[in-house]
Design brief:
The protein is 40% helix and 18% strand. The protein is an alpha/beta fold. It binds beta-D-glucopyranose. The site of beta-D-glucopyranose has 12 residues, from loops. Keywords: Signal.
Length: 400
């Protein structure tokens, strides 16, 4: 109860400061692009850069996002930028075009600009050692944002409960097919996972498989392609085109004879988009195939309205930015950060200091927010966040 009240108050205050910040700074903190110089957005703390009355933060924050080609990171980048600026901080925001060496370079440039704190959503959790070691040498704290970085220079991790994203997807399939009451009936399923370079991807997949595997073992769920291990079903860079191509191959090889496909587990929306496209163009059957996703990307929400995708696991990335800002302020103010901090981040989250290790035996204190399931039946919940609007056609658009 108390946490909800704090969250509501904080979000209200954030919204007010964000509005003030956006109104005064939008032209300065120009939108960023994957091409161009490494530091693609930079803005100061003067009155017209978002530092309005009540903002007390001082310092420069480096915000390194992976790419603008996947919808959510544009939202993350701009929420973080707006919220830190509204709180009085200078920000540098970069997007690294899904290119790890460019991300190293972008972070090095931020260090050269004397940032006080780094917030990094890694392209490849194992490829940032050079930049992370330099951050440690410079005494700059690093928050791994959404995706863990496998380097001990990382001080904290802010994300969603990645494993439960997967269990929600798996459970959705179990419930939709009513597998508990399947009796002798069998159902066909195929699987598509995320980018092996992304530390999150196995968490999503394992969460889903922990729910689905018992039904596969019992023979209730069958995978006609036989492709069930993570490495085989993974999708480099979460690419829609790669997911589309693999789905077309599977449909051509295992379903062209009229075999019915009942469900396709997809770890996120960009891969679900590719799989749905393949189902629309290459699937011979007439049944509706259950397709899972994650993120609430606009195109996928449209597919949910149109009955082409069944669900998405929604992660409110504005809340993720709220939690990251609160944690950053605590770090910069030298506060003690322990489990009790989970009650002070302004959003519902749990503290976990065992599950995520930056190296063997080195767990990273993690703050994990709560994902939710969105289907055609509760799209209004997204509108209620204030982050989406619904058009007369029933389709949702993200508020820019
Ligand atoms: C994020 C997902 C996203 C995926 C691709 C993951 O690390 O947690 O929300 O769908 O990256 O961008």
């Amino acid at each position: 109860m108390k946490r909800k009240l704090i969250s509501a108050l904080l979000c209200g205050a954030m919204a007010a400061t964000m509005l003030a910040g956006c109104g005064s700074s939008s032209s300065d903190s120009s939108s960023t692009a994957d091409s161009g110089s490494a530091t693609t957005s930079e803005s100061g703390t003067t009155a017209d850069s978002g530092s309005t009355g009540g903002a007390t933060g001082t310092g420069k924050i480096g915000i390194s996002m992976p790419t603008q080609s996947l919808e959510r990171w544009n939202r993350d980048g701009s929420y973080l930028d707006e919220q830190f600026q509204a709180a009085g901080y200078e920000t540098i925001v970069t997007y690294s075009d899904n290119d790890s060496s460019r991300q190293v370079n972008d972070i090095q440039n931020m260090l050269a600009e004397d940032v006080d704190l780094l917030i990094v959503a890694a392209i490849d959790g194992e490829a940032l050692n050079t930049a992370m070691n330099e951050a440690a040498d410079a005494g700059v704290s690093v928050i791994a944002y959404d995706r863990l970085i496998l380097n001990d220079a990382v001080s904290y991790y802010v994300s969603f409960d990645n494993y439960s994203v997967g269990t929600l997807q798996g459970q959705y399939i179990v419930d939709a097919l009513d597998l508990e009451n399947a009796g002798d009936k069998t159902y066909n399923i195929e699987l598509t996972a995320g980018d092996p370079a992304d530390n999150n991807a196995p968490y999503f997949f394992n969460g889903a498989m922990d729910v689905l595997q018992p039904y596969i073992d019992a023979g209730t769920l069958v995978v006609p392609s036989g492709q069930t291990d993570f490495d085989t079903v993974a999708t480099a860079q979460w690419s829609t085109d790669t997911a589309l191509e693999r789905a077309q191959n599977i449909l051509g090889s295992y379903y062209a004879d009229g075999t019915q496909l009942d469900a396709w587990l997809c770890s996120n929306d960009s891969t679900a988009l590719g799989v749905s496209q393949a189902l629309t163009s290459d699937y011979a059957g007439s049944n509706t195939v259950i397709v899972t996703g994650q993120d609430g990307d606009e195109a996928n929400l449209k597919n949910i309205v149109d009955g082409i995708q069944s669900m998405t696991v929604y992660k409110n990335v504005s809340d993720e930015a709220v939690a990251t800002l609160a944690l950053s302020e605590a770090i910069l103010n030298g506060e003690t950060i322990d489990a009790s901090m989970a009650d002070n981040l302004g959003v519902e989250c749990s503290y976990d200091d065992t599950s995520y290790e930056t190296s063997d035996g080195n767990p990273c204190p993690s703050f994990l927010l709560v994902p939710t399931v969105i289907t055609a039946d509760n799209l209004q919940d997204l509108v209620d966040t204030g982050l989406y609007t619904m058009g007369d056609d029933g389709y949702l658009s993200a508020v820019q």
